[in-house]
Amino acid sequence: MSHDVLNPTPEYLAFWRERHVCTLTTPRPDGTPHVVPVGVTYDPEAGLARVISNRHSKKVRNILAAQEAQEAEEARADGAQAGARVAVCQMEGRRWATLEGRAVIRTDEASVADAVARYAERYGRTPSPNPDRVVMEITLDRAMGRA
After folding, report:
1. How far apart are CA 52 and CA 128, in angstroms?
2. By Cβ atoms counted within 10 A, which residue in 57, 60, 89, 90 is the most buried?
3. Are the beta carbons of 82 and 41 closer than 8 angstroms?
4. Residue 14 falls in which region: left (phi positive, over 0), alpha (psi -120 to 50) or beta
5. In angstroms, rounded to a whole number, what is the distance separating the alpha carbons of residues 12 and 61?
6. Cα(111)–Cα(97) distance, integer angstroms
7. Which tens digit of pLDDT belongs to each residue from 61-108?
8. 53 - beta bridge partners?
């Protein structure tokens, strides 16, 4: 079932506010999917999902590699957005939800602090300080699920 990314149903949004481990799927440079467990926050007002991570992780390297490949093409005739095409998903029993979009890596202190605060609110714990922390910011264009 399709959902409006910016105006999800109350049930869909409530499901994204519950504490669930999610998966993040990123493309490896060879095009194969890399799927890992993560914590995700969903911000429908901004049309964004966020994942915090270590800058040296494979998922971050996958996103950066996709960004670099796009930048190498410079003038994209199709007008595609920058970033790697990714999906985040969570499930519990028959309920499931997937968000898709383009991910970029943010390293600025304000973006990382905001993402950490959102993570702490959803997951009920503040991650320990990490000077190598970055945030994957996913500009959403698709939402699916049954909540």
Report:
1. 12
2. 90
3. no
4. alpha
5. 30
6. 25
7. 999 998 888 776 654 555 556 789 999 999 999 999 999 999 999 999
8. 134
pTM comes to: 0.92
Helix or strand run (H / E) with residue 145: strand 133-146
Contacts of 132 (CB under 8 A, 6+ apart): 54, 55, 56
For the beta carbon of residue 42, count every other beta carbon within 10 angstroms. 26
114: nearest Cα among 98, 134, 97? 134
How would you classify the pairing of strands 84-92 and 22-27? antiparallel
CA-to-CA dists, residue 87 to 98, 108, 124, 128, 145, angstroms: 7, 23, 23, 26, 13
Query: Are the C-beta atoms of 27 and 66 separated by less than 8 Å?
Result: yes
pLDDT tens, 17-34?
Answer: 999 999 999 999 999 999
Place of tokens 């970055």: 134
Give the pair of three-digit tokens for residue 142.
């698709």
Report residue 5 as tokens: 């990314």
Question: What is d(CA 78, CA 131) in angstroms, rounded to the nearest whole number?
Answer: 37
